[in-house]
Specification:
Length: about 190
C-alpha cells in the first residue's frame, strides 16, 4: 500500500470476556480443548487425526470440541459440546479453565482471540506458525508453533506438553501473564 513499515502499528486485541477469569485450579494434564465454529478453517480434522495418534500413546487423553454445530461422531475420548455463546458463555469460560492444553491449528486465523481466551485462562496453546499466532504464542514458553500441517506433528506436540504436567502448568501460568501484560482491549487502544 506504499506505507512505510515504521508507520505501521500492530494494535492486537483482547478477549471477549467481560472480566478477567479467576485463577485456575490444577488441571488434569490430559484434557485437550478445541474451539471453533468453522470446522474446516479451524482445521478440525487435523485436530481429530492428531488426537487419534496421540491417544494411541496416551489412552487417557480426552478432547473437548466446542463450536461446530451439528458435528458429532462416535469417537473414543471425544466430547462434542456444540456452540457455547449467549447464556452458555460461562460454560465456555469454565471449559477454558479446566483444559490442560488448547489446540488451534487454524488454516487461517485473522487474529486469534480464542488463543488469547485460552491463554488468559492459564492454558498453554498449540497453533500453526502463521498469522497472529506467532505474535501471541511464545514458542516453547507459552505453547507451540507448528511449522507444518501434519497430524503427526500436532500429535507429537500434544504428547510433548502432556507428558510433563509441571512444564505444562508453568507454560499456562506464563501464557496468562503474557495476556495480562501484552494483550487486551486497553493495551490495543493505547497502541
Amino acid at each position: 500500500y506504499g506505507i512505510a513499515h515504521e508507520r505501521l502499528v500492530i494494535t492486537g486485541a483482547g478477549t471477549n470476556f467481560d472480566q478477567a477469569l479467576p485463577e485456575r485450579e490444577p488441571h488434569d494434564g490430559r484434557t485437550l480443548l478445541f474451539v471453533g465454529r468453522d470446522w474446516q478453517r479451524k482445521n478440525g480434522l487435523l485436530v481429530l487425526d492428531a488426537f487419534r495418534i496421540a491417544r494411541k500413546a496416551r489412552p487417557d487423553l480426552r478432547l473437548e470440541v466446542i463450536g461446530p454445530s451439528g458435528m458429532s461422531m462416535d469417537e473414543p475420548g471425544v466430547e462434542w459440546i456444540g456452540a457455547l455463546d449467549g447464556e452458555r458463555r460461562g460454560e465456555l469460560q469454565r471449559r477454558y479453565l479446566n483444559a490442560s492444553l488448547f489446540l488451534c491449528p487454524s488454516r487461517f486465523e485473522p487474529f486469534g482471540i480464542a488463543i488469547l481466551e485460552a491463554m488468559s485462562a492459564g492454558c498453554a496453546a498449540i497453533a500453526l506458525d502463521r498469522g497472529a499466532a506467532r505474535e501471541i504464542i511464545d514458542d516453547g514458553i507459552t505453547g507451540s508453533l507448528l511449522r507444518d500441517n501434519e497430524p503427526s506433528t500436532l500429535a507429537e506436540a500434544i504428547l510433548g506438553w502432556t507428558s510433563d504436567v509441571g512444564r505444562l502448568s508453568e507454560a499456562g501460568a506464563r501464557a496468562r501473564a503474557a495476556v495480562e501484560e501484552q494483550w487486551g482491549w486497553d493495551q490495543a487502544a493505547r497502541r
